Amino acid sequence: MLKSILLIATAFAGSQPALQLASQTIIEDDGGGMAGAANRMVGGIVSYVGWPNGRGAAGRSLCQVGTPRLASNPVAPQLPSGRHLIVRRVTAAAVMAGGDCDILFLGRMPAGDRQRLIGWVRGRAVLTITDDDPACLYGAMFCLVRKPAGLGFSANLDAIGRGPLRVDPRVLQIGRDDGGAS
């Protein structure tokens, strides 16, 4: 079985409006495939985020809006501590009407819904992750990307900086080998 390997790259794209950091992990050959890799990556990202009230990620609510591109089933991330997030599928309208979402996972959806959600999130303690914006141009904080060597992500520092969440810079280490056999 292949172990997850992290390839860290820093991308400074002058033509893009926001500075982005990128990371990539190779998909494990254990039957979990892309969906498992996406769940591990989302769980890893979430575990490096601090909410203003000081509560950790466990017990947080992840709302999935739209249809995921990297998994056929709803996203069900597991935190490194072994705890799970509360996952619900909701509409964009339900989120903005008080859907009580700490984390938004944005899949394929109409562009207008995405724009309204990203605008609504600004200034709120809501983490946004998408698998439907490979260039991370539409305002989500983290963007999952399928790459030839595996699954990667970009961090949109402009979007992160617009809200009250604290994102630990060590988030780039989420795919690193956990120290097991080499």
Number of strands: 10
Shape annotation: globular
Structural class: alpha/beta
Order of helices and strands, N to C?
EEHEEEHEHEEEHE
> Could you say what the CATH architecture is?
3-Layer(aba) Sandwich
Calculate the terminal CA-CA distance, rounded to whole Å.
Answer: 12 Å
Oligomer: single chain
Pfam families: DUF4154 (PF13689)
Organism: Sphingopyxis panaciterrulae
Protein name: DUF4154 domain-containing protein
InterPro entries: YfiR/HmsC-like
Written overview of the protein:
20% of the residues lie in helices and 25% in strands. It has 182 residues and is an alpha/beta fold. The chain is globular, with a radius of gyration of 15 Å. It starts with 5 loop residues before the first strand and ends in a 15-residue tail after the last strand.
Topology:
Layout: E1 6-11, E2 20-25, H1 33-47, E3 49-50, E4 61-65, E5 86-89, H2 92-96, E6 103-106, H3 111-121, E7 127-130, E8 142-147, E9 150-156, H4 157-161, E10 166-167
Parallel strand pairs: 4-5, 4-6, 6-7, 7-8
Antiparallel strand pairs: 1-2, 2-9, 3-10, 8-9
Pfam families: DUF4154
Protein name: DUF4154 domain-containing protein
